[in-house]
Design a protein that fits this description.
alpha/beta; TIM Barrel; binds ligand RRO
Length: about 300
């Protein structure tokens, strides 16, 4: 059992936003598979169809996606959130997005009655015009968005950051100033693939965000730097597919981890990661998870 931003989690392996998060039943399925908490697909103020296909490709060492924030909008998602809450015995976190602070607040406010346990503010989609990374690179905007959502809810507010910035710590500090209870790092790394036979970019949107094994070292460094600079917990995400990856992320400073791309290899990843962390703690002579969170900072 761990506690993060006041939420009690049976283990620190959380489903990341965007994977299996579009319906209440798919979220519940991941909870049944052993996840400590689940995060929904990002939900916004208006229905969005998303980018044209192909919207996701498997590069072998990671996935490149440009889904384009497809979602039914918050009024139409409330029912799914209610199902996720009813069917899962773990915290359900609503990932939300908007074009500005007001829209974020409207979406959060509109979802509160469906009963989420926390909000995750997605200010970091790398390829969504008017949303995401353009906002997530702007410290003032991030502070304003966090503050606006904190104004409409008492629930914990997590802010998910983009690695596509020169100084992720300054953005993390802005989120903290705005009242964020935790930082989630990282969203996907902006990238592109080109088909050499036709010369066309492969993704319908031409570019997208890279996730999976390839981004783990980027995520580890971001979490390491954020942990050193902030007073709020950091939740690590990026390339975690085994308990060893999760322990490494925790040693960088993550209080919990999120798992996304690895779910495509099977949802048993949550149980494997949770059990592996627990065995590592008990067999390594550590008292509890707190002993390994940020351990790399103490090894000088
Ligand atoms: O929907 C997407 O294309 C998407 C989102 Br919202 C995000 O936050 N990160 C990402 O890689 N894709």
């Amino acid at each position: 059992m761990i506690e993060i931003t006041g939420l009690k989690l049976r283990n620190p392996a959380i489903l990341a936003a965007g994977i299996m998060g579009t319906t209440g039943v798919s979220l519940a399925r991941i909870a049944w598979e052993g996840a400590g908490a689940v995060v929904t697909k990002s939900i916004g103020p208006e229905p969005k169809a998303g980018h044209s296909n192909p919207s996701m490709i498997n590069l072998g060492y990671g996935f490149l996606n440009a889904m384009g924030l497809p979602n039914p909008s918050y009024p139409d998602f409330s029912g799914e959130l209610e199902i996720a809450k009813r069917e899962s015995e773990v915290p359900v976190i609503a990932s939300i997005f908007g074009g500005n602070a007001h829209e974020f607040a409207v979406v959060a406010d509109g979802l509160i009655d469906a009963g989420p346990d926390a909000f995750e503010l997605n200010v970091s989609c790398p390829h969504a015009q008017g949303y995401g990374a353009s906002i997530g690179c702007d410290a003032c905007a991030v502070e304003e968005i966090a503050a606006a959502v904190c104004d409409v809810t008492e629930l914990p507010v997590w802010v998910k950051l983009t690695p596509n910035v020169t100084d992720i710590v300054s953005i993390g500090k802005a989120a903290q100033r705005g009242g964020a209870d935790a930082i989630v790092a990282i969203n996907t790394v902006r990238g592109m693939a080109i088909d050499i036979h036709s010369g066309y970019p492969v993704l319908g949107n031409r570019f997208g965000g890279l996730s999976g094994k390839a981004v783990k070292p980027v995520a580890i460094k971001c979490v390491y730097d954020l942990y050193a600079a902030l007073d709020i917990p950091v939740i690590g995400v990026g390339g975690i597919s085994s308990w060893e990856d999760a322990v490494e992320m925790m040693m960088a400073g993550a209080s919990a981890v999120q798992i996304g791309s690895a779910v495509y290899d099977g949802p048993e990843v949550f149980r494997n990661v949770a059990d592996g962390i627990e065995d590592f703690i008990s067999s390594g002579g550590y008292k509890d998870i707190g002993d390994i969170v940020g351990l790399a900072h103490r090894r000088t």
